[in-house]
Amino acid sequence: MVTLSLTLEDTGLEAGLTDALRQLSDLTPLMRRIGGVLETSVSERFEQSKGPGGVPWAPSQRAREVGGKTLVDSTRLRDSIVSEAGPRSVEVGSNVPYAAIHQSGGTIKPRDADKLAFRLPNGQFVMVDQVTIPARPFLGFDAADEAEIAQEVAAWLAEAFS
Hints:
two-stranded antiparallel sheet, two-stranded antiparallel ribbon, Phage virion morphogenesis (Putative tail completion) protein, Phage_virion_morphogenesis
């Protein structure tokens, strides 16, 4: 049998490979950078009133009647977007209770009453059986995000192995 054996005896190369493997075992620093990219992307979506891929949001009744931008009346939702990085993943989201209904849309029905009661932007008080909120996705991943993340990964790799 013919075999080939390779032994690394260059301590500098061995140390470099050991350091590279250590950095690749915990990608938290890279995931933080990716989280930052996605947080910025979500912030830009609020500014542009568009979802991932540039799909415009349906204007809210308040925005139509009194002006302003949809989903940014108080900026609470926009300002709640955060990322959490781990060794192999990153999550981007909001802890605001009404974030999910705006992201996915849906129908709100009263729980403990016959009607929903609220004040319209014009000051009128109304009572209704239900309210349908159209989806206005602000979280998501599109081609622009993918390209920017690829740049971040390339930059991180260049730094990690320099």
